[in-house]
Amino acid sequence: MPYLKAALICFGICVAVVVAARAETSVMARAVTSGAGFDAGYGVYGEHIQRIGAYFGIQAFGSFLLQKKSPADSGYKWGVGGQARGYLGDWYAGGGIACSGYDSRFDATDDHPAHHWRKHTFYPTLSAGLDDDMFDVWATYYFQEGRTVNQVQAFGGGCSAVLWQGLKVGTSIVRSEYLQAGKEKESWVGSVSIGWQF
């Protein structure tokens, strides 16, 4: 009988959390500029933000871009991540982790055989921003990764707005610092997105 009471209490808490939650799911087409050794590209971006009660929330996202290394013949980039957020009204601060990677292929030429470049890495992240029913304004710091010799770290920001019955537009810019052939470099990459928020 004590287990039944505990189960009913847990079930009631779960129901209360779901009822109190406010969720946003967005799916968007995205175009990105060239930078950090990549050509310009395009693809899709998806995001889910779940508010749980007044002070807590989570965010998960993923992207897939047809974007290749500048000298490559074909390639793509991908990214996934998530974070826990603490809210004060519509303002939030959060921390989490992101994972990203690329895959680029080089066709054979008279001088070189065909070859294949592929990497992926993880970044701890810290974010802050404003997320209300219409606008999302954010800034994120991506801590230096240590999985590749490039030792990438980045800082970015952006904004989005729901314009009309779920139609959503957004833009972002990210500054990256990294090592290339042992030399420190920096690059700026911008994006524009359009899609739908459910």
Chart the SSEs and their pairings.
Blueprint: H1 2-20, E1 22-32, E2 41-52, E3 56-66, E4 74-88, E5 91-106, E6 115-131, E7 135-142, E8 153-164, E9 167-180, E10 183-197
Describe it.
By secondary structure, this protein is mainly β. It contains one helix and ten strands. The chain has one helix at 2-20, and strands at 22-32, 41-52, 56-66, 74-88, 91-106, 115-131, 135-142, 153-164, 167-180, 183-197. It has a ten-stranded antiparallel beta barrel with strand order 1-2-3-4-5-6-7-8-9-10. The model is unreliable at 6-20 (pLDDT under 50).
Keywords:
single chain, 198 residues, mainly beta, 10-stranded antiparallel barrel, 1 helix
- Global geometry: globular
**Beta-strand content bin:** over 45%
Q: Quaternary arrangement of the chains shown? A: single chain
- Give the N-terminus to C-terminus distance in angstroms: 42 Å
The tally of helices reads 1
- Rounded mean pLDDT score: 88
Helical proportion? under 10%
Q: What structural class do the secondary elements suggest?
A: mainly beta
Provide the low-confidence segments as ranges: 6-20
Largest pleated sheet: 10 strands, antiparallel, barrel
Placed side by side, the strands forming the largest sheet appear as 1-2-3-4-5-6-7-8-9-10
Radius of gyration: 20 Å
Number of strands: 10
